[in-house]
Design goal:
Number of domains: 2
Order of helices and strands: HHHHHHHHHHHHHHH
CATH architecture of the largest domain: Alpha Horseshoe
Largest sheet: none
Length: about 240
């Protein structure tokens, strides 16, 4: 198993481009670890090497994925997340504890948060909705990325009208969060919910707009009809 990880890292180093590495940093306020490979190429690499690990047990594959998570490199985490997507049907309730730990231990920027939570955690919650209430704890965490994760994990479901009450509950908890990455996260969740029930999201925004950070508000109303957006943005 160790050899496959070493081979992947050699491939990433070989294909890295300095221009991509430099341009990637522009999308982040914090310093990131990045080789310098475009997302589409990372996905191709993930697909290529998954052929070599696809017959492993889920537990052994999780160990490989965690090895990729541990370095903190965007591309390695991207490969781990791609592999996780390919084994979604094998997810079991007990996997929640590991996901909870990974969010705490390894997520340090919006890209890894959104890729992992928007896909794997979001899928897990659709499979096992009894775990949705766990997001309340995430939303109250001292870890800003875990708070963002609480919202992003519901994005998949929100656009289909699933867990409707939980979407607004998480938005309420995060309403006054001082971190713009969290504001953008729950604003995004509300925006996706508006695709299913625009009036419900509009009513939520109107109820809270005097206190709601403008960043979150703008995200939430982005896909609304012009007349509703105008009313939401109007002061007073």
């Amino acid at each position: 198993m160790k050899n496959i990880i070493e081979t992947i890292r050699k491939t990433l180093k070989t294909e890295a481009q300095e221009s991509v590495r430099i341009s990637s940093q522009r999308f982040f306020k914090e310093e990131i670890k990045v080789y310098g490979i475009k997302t589409a190429d990372v996905q191709k690499i993930a697909k290529t090497y998954f052929a070599e690990v696809k017959d492993l047990s889920k537990e052994r594959l999780f160990v490989l994925c965690e090895s990729l998570w541990q370095t903190g490199y965007i591309e390695e985490i991207g490969i781990a997340c791609e592999w996780m997507c390919r084994i979604h049907p094998q997810l079991k309730p007990k996997d929640w504890e590991m996901f909870d730990r990974w969010v705490d231990a390894y997520i340090t920027n919006w890209a890894t948060c959104d890729t992992f939570c928007g896909n794997t955690v979001g899928t897990f919650l659709e499979m096992y909705p009894q775990y949705v209430p766990k997001l309340r704890t995430w939303a109250k965490s001292k870890n800003l990325w875990k708070r963002r994760a609480a919202a992003v994990s519901l994005v998949r479901a929100a656009r289909r009208g699933q867990f409707h009450d939980s979407v607004f509950e998480i938005a309420e908890i995060l309403l006054l969060d001082p971190e713009d990455m969290v504001q953008k996260g729950y604003g995004w969740m509300l925006k996706e919910a508006s695709k299913f029930d625009v009036q419900a999201v509009f009513q939520f925004v109107m109820k809270h707009k005097s206190a709601m950070p403008r960043t979150a508000l703008r995200y939430a109303i982005e896909k609304m009809p012009p007349n509703l957006k105008e009313r939401a943005m109007k002061k007073g």
